[in-house]
Amino acid sequence: MLGEQGSRAITPYRSVLVEPPPSLDDDSTDKRAYDDRWTTITKVRSTRQPRPIRTNDTNMTKQEEANKELVLRFEDEVWNERNLDAIDAYLAEDFVLHFHKGPLNGRAEFREKVESNLASFPDSSQTIEDVIAEDDKVVVRMMVRGTQDGEFLGVEPTGKEFEIEEVHIARIEDGKIVEQWSQADVLGLLEQIGVA
Predict the structure, then answer these.
(1) Which residues have C-beta within 8 Å of that of residue 96, sequence separation ≥ 6?
(2) Partners of 187 in the beta sheet?
(3) Which residue among 18, 72, 170, 190 is the one 20 to 30 A from 132 at the CA level?
(4) What is the CATH code for 57-192?
């Protein structure tokens, strides 16, 4: 829209501010040049279409729904029910976990991590707060609670309780989790158990 003070063209990727010349007559060369410039900007704007945003789960595909259910079952069965034998059913053989210590490769390394965490925090549990599924990825935000009754990162048991937030992003392929990115509030955990 053209206004007396100027005009603004907004695209999904950037904003472009176009300042009109101080004074233009309808037949002046400057006015035509300005109109040509404005036309170019509006053409750029009209060729960039934003990706459609889905606002609710009714638009979720059957595959996305299946991926979401797979990840929810995995998180609950392995972490809350402590069924480590289920790891093979949910994770691909070449599974990779990306987290603050660097990548873990394969089911065996992941099992060791779970065993270590459960030894440090035997009463730990997680509550899923949000789940988002799109294409081959599922994002889960959760609250994790527990008591440090075992050694953790070289820290002797403190008997102190903690509650932290974690976010996991899982990538699914052929009905198995092949990759996961995990972000946990480790600093918050260390503060709550009294070592940071």
Answers:
(1) 103, 104, 105, 178, 179, 180
(2) none
(3) 190
(4) 3.10.450.50
Helix (H) or strand (E) holding 88: helix 87-90
For 103-148, what is each residue's pLDDT tens digit?
Answer: 999 999 999 999 999 999 999 999 999 999 999 999 999 999 999 9
Nearest CA among 143, 142, 141, 137 for reference residue 180: 137
CATH 3.10.450.50 domain extents, the chain: 57-192
Q: Cα(77)–Cα(143) distance, rounded to whole angstroms?
A: 16
- Confirm if 145 and 124 have CB atoms less than 8 A apart: yes
What's residue 47's pLDDT? 46
SS3 of 102-170: the string is: EEEEHHHHHHHHHHHHHHHCCCCEEEEEEEEEECCEEEEEEEEEEECCCCECCECCCCCEEEEEEEEEE
Q: What's the farthest any 2 CA atoms get from each other in the chain?
A: 83
